[in-house]
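SAMPLE LOG
Freezer: B-3
Tube label: C17
Construct: single chain, 201 aa
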Amino acid sequence: MLKLNPMKKGILLSAMCALGVMTACNSDKSTPGYTYMDDMYRSPSLETYEVAANTAQGTSAQLPVEGTVARGYVPYDLPNSNEGYEASKNNAAVPAYFAELDAEAGKELYGQFCSHCHGEKGDGNGILMEREKILGIPGYGADRLPDITPGSIYHVIMHGKNNMGSHASQLTYEERWKIIKYVMKLRQDQSATAAPVEPAA
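STRUCTURE (predicted):
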């Protein structure tokens, strides 16, 4: 058996360590170099929309296949235009369960997303109106908005109208219809308390 003196042993050990460090390095700056059992603790590095070389790793972020619909998403095809708004008044996209919805189920959501502008009673006198931050907010009564329907309210939630921005990303499909049901209740309340319109002479 070959025996090395302590000095030669140290030199040999140092050389082996240096060789290990050098072989662990590479010129590809997108990888960490060679590591022991790398796949056990480091996820693969992929550029956005890059297909992985190893099919077992799959791909990075991908655009959905054309024509597919995300789970829980209900498409809405009416455009954000005056024509789209008018078409929404007769929109048949109102779900069948809308008639059976409890109006009070949308009260809390209405308080979170709508009352600061439209008011707790739906009269257009929310806190932002009172502080004159936003002016001209309509109430829901038939005297103020004579031709709104559940479909047109849904259209406004999806696309926004005038000073109101879209709330489509903030509310789920079911939450939108709960709010609409509550708005229709407030509309009835506002219409019942509105002053009667005197006939023209």
